[in-house]
Design goal:
A hairpin with a 2-residue loop joins strand 7 (185-189) and strand 8 (192-196). 4% of the residues lie in helices and 27% in strands. The chain is mainly beta. The strands form four sheets. Strands 1, 4, 7, 8 and 9 form a five-stranded mixed β-sheet that branches. A four-stranded antiparallel β-sheet has the order 3-2-5-6, with no helix packed on it. Strands 11-12-14 form a three-stranded antiparallel β-sheet, with no helix packed on it. The protein has one helix at residues 3-12; strands at 81-90, 100-104, 120-124, 130-136, 147-153, 159-165, 185-189, 192-196, 199-201, 228-229, 234-237, 240-244, 248-249, 263-266. Residues 1-45 and 207-219 have low confidence and may be disordered. It is built from one helix and 14 strands; from the N terminus they run H-E-E-E-E-E-E-E-E-E-E-E-E-E-E. The protein folds into two domains: 51-201, Protocatechuate 3,4-Dioxygenase, subunit A (Sandwich); 209-267, Carbohydrate-binding module superfamily 5/12 (Seminal Fluid Protein  PDC-109 (Domain B), Ribbon), CATH 2.10.10.20. GO terms for molecular function: dioxygenase activity. Residues 1-28 form the signal peptide. Residues 220-266 form the Chitin-binding type-3 domain. Residues 33-60, 204-231 are annotated as: Disordered.
Length: 267
């Protein structure tokens, strides 16, 4: 049985699973100190033969064009504060920078904002493959346990659509979509909670093209969803010209004006 499988079973049962001095179980981002005060190195799960992060259905509440932000909480927001952090790895344990993560979830009352963009936002992993999301614990609604939706796309790779779950929830056992492989590691901190989760995408982690490399010439033309773009590609959209900064496969909602990390406006 792999380390990830053991962790899933322990977390599903509500057990606390620290990183041990013997090097057994931990999230890829977690580290604690041993009795000798030596900081133990993180132990990624992507090296133990497990599958990449499983996908799940998108559901009816996804909206494109989410704002670029890491904090979904505004003054006066109701609900228990939650910080979700982690890393995105390739299947060979290499951290992936520049991965687009698009999150959406229900509010404290279990409702999705379909008119605006409350509790919706996208971000990109940093140079170390890390991300942080500040939000609240989502509320419940009929038929589902608590969950957070996410789309993840490494530059130039397919989109992973999945959901993240909370351990110890009574509805985990009755939700037909619930997957223990997608449980976050959640801890109470003060009046809020922190959660960690590491994505493993079904890609080989390798240094990608440098967005500062000399730009290439065409292909060019009108921006189109569903097309792979390379660094330096030029497109037009809404009467303006843009140059691609990171290789990616385009999708509705990621038009050049909406994702400045992917496209730079040019005169």
């Amino acid at each position: 049985m792999s380390r990830k499988t053991l962790l899933r079973a322990a977390v599903a049962a509500g057990a606390a699973v620290p990183l041990l001095a013997t090097g057994s179980l931990a999230l890829a981002r977690d580290a604690v100190r041993s009795s000798t005060d030596r900081t133990l190195p993180p132990t990624p799960f992507c090296d133990d033969g497990d599958d990449p992060t499983p996908d799940q259905m998108e559901g009816p509440y996804f909206r494109p064009n989410s704002p670029l932000r890491t904090d979904l909480v505004t003054p006066g927001t109701a609900g228990t504060r939650l910080t979700v952090s982690g890393y995105v790895f390739g299947r060979n344990c290499v951290p992936l920078p520049g991965v687009l993560l698009d999150f959406w979830q229900a509010d404290n009352a279990g409702a999705y904002d379909m008119a605006g963009y409350a509790f919706r936002g996208h971000q990109f992993t940093d140079a170390s493959g890390g991300f942080t999301l500040r939000t609240i614990v989502p509320g419940l609604y009929p038929g589902r346990t608590r969950h957070i939706h996410v789309k993840a796309q490494a530059p130039g790779e397919p989109v992973l659509t999945t959901q993240l779950y909370f351990p110890g929830e009574p509805r985990n056992g009755t939700d037909a979509l619930f997957d223990p492989a997608l449980l976050m590691n959640v801890r109470a901190v003060g009046g809020g909670r922190t959660a960690t989760f590491d994505f493993v995408l079904d890609v080989d982690g390798a240094p990608g093209p440098d967005p500062t490399d000399p730009p290439t010439d065409p292909p060019s033309g009108t921006w189109t969803a569903g097309r792979p773009y390379a660094v330096g590609d030029r497109v037009t959209h809404g009467g303006r010209s843009y140059r691609c900064l990171q290789a990616h496969t385009s999708m509705a909602g990621w038009e050049p004006p909406n994702v400045p990390a992917l496209w730079r406006s040019e005169p």
